[in-house]
């Protein structure tokens, strides 16, 4: 079972443990996040990454962060609301683009408020205990939903594929980016288990190499046929006829179907259209942001230029102090996306209508 092999985020007896993805593929090490500062750092540094996994880690992280600060609680309900609000805001500020982060944190705040409301006649100790246990149930529900929606997306996605197909993926939208089968890699894992014999090409995904370090690791670990290519080889591989579909994840999909995903995804989409290759984006409903009208309204994270200049090299590969531009994501316009695969089914253009219909809005 994939989930036995790869435990991206685990929570047991109040302990939050993540697989530190910055150490892969060389070392498979698990680390405990003990307070809000640990959670913030782990998300910011991409120790835990991928939109759904960030959401699950943030939900448990809010609990861990609050518990670590409870020694400073003033004993009142407003004091608890303040303390927990600060933890939520802090964790929510760790990365801006993946909407699952704010979605999960909002879910945790709502669970807290509902429990406090239901316990308005209780004393502060009892009210806070009720709030904390409601938040724990909420975090577990977010976790469970992620596992279930990955599985459902994998089944839906597999209906778009045939045995033996050549597939291209970008970044890592797999088990490492979620707590289940993954989003875009979900049907690949499921198909692999069912003997589909896919031939997968993984873009290395400059500058943080999620394709090389993570996708190649994850797929080869389960014995799936995976070939690593540099990002600038995608066109050549497509032209050679080896790619019959492109499968990618998403960090935030706007209401009109424009989808922000790892930098470079947009270029792959343009190439796929040019070569007549279907381009599928895998988007759990928790990643659709109906409050964001179009891709232009999505905040794109910009990261440190040293990720380009030096990070994965033994020595600097650019002149010292050279200017850089390092956006972590780009927006693929809706017209380049052949279909959007969600846990509720497959949406086709026009997405402004089909996504709402699937969401039941
Ligand atoms: O910066 P990262 O590694 O968190 O970016 C991850 C991606 O862009 C994934 O493709 C996206 O989160 C969807 S994964 C299920």
Biggest β-sheet strands, sense, barrel = 7 strands, mixed
Q: What fraction of residues sit in β-strands?
A: 15-25%
Q: State the helix count.
A: 12
> Mean pLDDT, nearest integer?
97
> Uncertain regions: pLDDT < 50 for 5+ in a row?
none
The largest beta-sheet arranges its strands as 6-5-4-7-10-13-14
- C-alpha-based Rg, rounded: 21 Å
Q: What general form does the structure show?
A: globular
End-to-end C-alpha gap: 35 Å
Task: Give the fraction of residues assigned to helices.
Answer: 40-55%
Could you say which small molecules are bound to this protein?
5-S-methyl-1-O-phosphono-5-thio-D-ribulose
Q: Could you say which structural class the secondary elements and strand pairing correspond to?
A: alpha/beta
Order of helices and strands: HEEEHHHHHEHEHEHEEEHEEHEEEH
- Please give the number of β-strands: 14
List the helices and strands and how they pair.
Elements: H1 2-5, E1 9-12, E2 15-19, E3 30-33, H2 36-44, H3 51-69, H4 77-92, H5 99-118, H6 124-158, E4 166-169, H7 186-193, E5 199-203, H8 210-221, E6 225-229, H9 234-239, E7 245-248, E8 252-254, E9 259-262, H10 265-275, E10 279-282, E11 288-289, H11 306-309, E12 329-332, E13 339-342, E14 345-347, H12 351-359
Parallel strand pairs: 4-5, 4-7, 5-6, 7-10, 8-11, 10-13
Antiparallel strand pairs: 1-2, 2-3, 8-9, 9-12, 13-14
Helix pairs in contact: 2-3, 2-4, 3-4, 3-5, 3-6, 4-5, 5-6, 6-7
The chain binds 5-S-methyl-1-O-phosphono-5-thio-D-ribulose.
């Amino acid at each position: 079972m994939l989930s036995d092999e790869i435990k991206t985020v685990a929570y047991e007896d109040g302990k939050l443990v993540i697989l530190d993805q910055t150490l892969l593929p060389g070392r498979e090490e698990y680390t405990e996040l003990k307070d809000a500062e640990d959670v913030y750092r782990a998300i910011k540094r991409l120790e835990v990454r991928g939109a759904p996994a960030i959401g699950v880690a943030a939900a448990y992280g809010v609990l861990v962060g609050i518990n670590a600060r409870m020694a400073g609680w003033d004993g009142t309900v407003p004091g608890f609301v303040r303390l927990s609000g600060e933890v939520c805001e802090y964790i929510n500020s760790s990365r801006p683009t993946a909407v699952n982060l704010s979605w999960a944190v909002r879910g945790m705040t709502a669970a807290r408020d509902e429990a406090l409301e239901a316990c308005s006649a209780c004393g502060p100790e009892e009210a806070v205990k009720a709030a904390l246990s409601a938040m724990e149930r909420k975090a577990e529900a977010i976790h469970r939903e992620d596992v279930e929606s990955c599985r459902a997306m994998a089944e839906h996605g597999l209906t778009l594929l045939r045995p033996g197909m050549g597939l291209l993926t970008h970044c890592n939208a797999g088990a490492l980016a979620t707590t289940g089968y993954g989003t875009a890699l979900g049907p690949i894992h499921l198909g692999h288990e069912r003997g589909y014999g896919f031939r997968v090409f993984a873009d290395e995904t400059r500058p943080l190499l999620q394709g090389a370090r993570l996708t190649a690791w994850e797929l080869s670990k389960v014995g799936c046929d995976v070939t690593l290519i540099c990002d600038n080889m995608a066109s050549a591989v497509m032209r050679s006829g080896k790619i019959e579909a492109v499968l990618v994840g998403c960090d935030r999909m706007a209401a009109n179907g424009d989808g922000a995903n790892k930098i470079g995804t947009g270029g792959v989409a343009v190439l796929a259209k040019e070569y007549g290759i279907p381009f599928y984006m895998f988007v759990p409903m928790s990643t659709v942001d109906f409050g964001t009208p179009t891709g232009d309204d999505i905040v794109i994270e910009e990261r440190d230029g040293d990720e380009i200049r030096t990070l994965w090299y033994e020595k600097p590969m650019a002149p010292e102090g050279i200017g850089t531009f390092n956006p972590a994501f780009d927006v693929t316009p809706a017209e380049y996306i052949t279909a959007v695969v969600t846990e509720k089914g497959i949406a086709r253009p026009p997405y402004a209508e089909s996504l709402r219909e699937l969401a039941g809005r």
